[in-house]
Amino acid sequence: MAIEINAVKRDAKGTGASRRLRRAGSVPGVVYGGGKEAITLEVNAKELFLQFRHEAFHASVLSLIVEGKKESVLLRDFQMHPVRNTIQHVDFQRVSATEKIHVKVPLHFVNADVAPGVKLGGGIVAHIQTEADVSCLAKDLPEFIEVDVATLEMGHSVHLSQIKLPKGVEFVQLAHGDDAAVASIAKTRGGVSAATEESAA
User: Fold this and answer.
1) Global pTM?
2) Which of 4, 21, 52, 155 has its CA 20 to 30 A from that of 85?
């Protein structure tokens, strides 16, 4: 089910108007793209913050409702207050059903506890990347991508080309010839010192 965000158009623009909005419990924002004009918005701060905490909000096609009309959008940018941890501004981009989108999607690592490098080697799974840029149609966008590290051995890595992707989804880096590593098994400090002692002996 799509995450819904309710917003209203705002006419007043500028720093002073935005400050008044925030004091009144709203977050200023904008929606643009899709061959239509950009519209300045205001969104309820509490409602937005509740959704904002969920990982899916940052990597899903959202349903933006402005004065009763729904549009499919992506969260493209946001500004946070450096001290208060409140959202200061949000940018949404309209998405087309027929055009591919580029989105950073979180990586979920599974089966780390059964990986030989962890179970037998006493190592730990080091996350080199926690998200990856994907290209796909809006309808094919996954909330996250699962990375299975069940067969990973000490000193070995999992690369983008080894990850099973949903149909219609591709890694942008891989399409450009960059088969980057996303996780590896690293020795724990105890393991390193034990190996050093062995070589010294």
Assistant:
1) 0.78
2) 4
